[in-house]
Design goal:
- With about 180 residues, the protein is an all-alpha fold.
- The chain has 2 domains: about 100 residues; about 70 residues, no CATH class.
- It contains 7 helices and no strands.
- Helix 1 runs antiparallel to helix 2.
- The mean pLDDT is about 80.
Length: about 180
């Protein structure tokens, strides 16, 4: 809608400019006709010049007013667009994280939070990362040991700490040894 209003405003402005040019051309033609007829050109020219100046002032005020309105409308439209984009982006991120978390739990299995194990025994898992793993639904060594390559990437994305850490520090192998 804002684009359509902008186009119409541009057409309006161009039409006004064409009108001014037409009036100036008309003034020149009238001066030539008066010269041919031998009338007093100075008085008529002054009157016509005053009229043209008045028309130019009117056009300038109208164009300025129209442009101010268009700028205001475009700014408001753009603000609304940005707000909706931020909301949509947050919603997509939230839905993606939820889907990623569901796929992770489906892959490694569900565990009872009451029977959680001390995942900090795995090298590279501190209390903060353990809390994040618990928020993802990972509570046991058995779940960690079942992680696939895809699950490692999911955990990296969802935890947000040191990408590649799960694989690099071999959490699965450590968890297999600890679950026995």
């Amino acid at each position: 809608m804002a684009l359509t209003i902008g186009v119409f405003s541009l057409i309006f402005i161009l039409t006004l400019v064409a009108l001014v040019l037409f009036c100036l051309r008309l003034l020149v033609l009238i001066e030539r006709w008066l010269a041919l007829l031998g009338k007093d050109i100075k008085d008529l020219s002054t009157n016509l010049s005053d009229s043209v100046e008045k028309i130019q002032d009117y056009i300038e005020k109208t164009v300025t007013s129209t442009m101010e309105k268009q700028r205001y409308e475009l700014e408001n439209s753009f603000r609304g667009f940005l707000t909706s984009m931020k909301t949509t982006q947050k919603q997509v991120i939230k839905e993606t994280k939820t889907a990623c978390k569901s796929a992770l739990i489906k892959s490694v299995g569900k565990a009872d939070p009451k029977k959680k194990e001390d995942l900090t025994k795995i090298k590279g898992v501190g209390k903060k990362i353990q809390r994040k793993l618990n928020l993802l639904g990972i509570y046991t060594f058995k779940q960690v040991s079942k992680m696939t390559e895809r699950d490692k990437k999911r955990v990296d994305q969802l935890i947000g700490f040191f990408p590649g850490r799960v694989k690099r520090e071999r959490w699965m192998q450590q968890a297999k040894a600890l679950k026995k």
